[in-house]
Amino acid sequence: MRKSTVSGISPAVIEAHGPEQSIITAVVRAVAAVEGRPTKSLPPLGDSINPDALTACIDDSNTDAHVAFDYSGHRVVVDTDGTVTVDG
Fold this sequence. Notes:
Layout: E1 2-6, E2 10-16, H1 23-35, H2 51-59, E3 66-71, E4 74-79, E5 83-87
Antiparallel strand pairs: 1-2, 2-5, 3-4, 4-5
């Protein structure tokens, strides 16, 4: 995981998912990192987006695209390459 600056204003956490980590886990971990709190203290991801649909969109895509949604007060962007970006 690496931190960077988006628009020079708010931090973003960029985290990639892969065989060792699902896209859902990557999203929750990235948001937890931005908030500086444990993943278990976050609201259910399912309150913001259907986790199964998100996984299907990312894992089954053969194009360059992204899914953007709001979760726990943050804008989350998940690219089809598995990169998760969270605006702080």
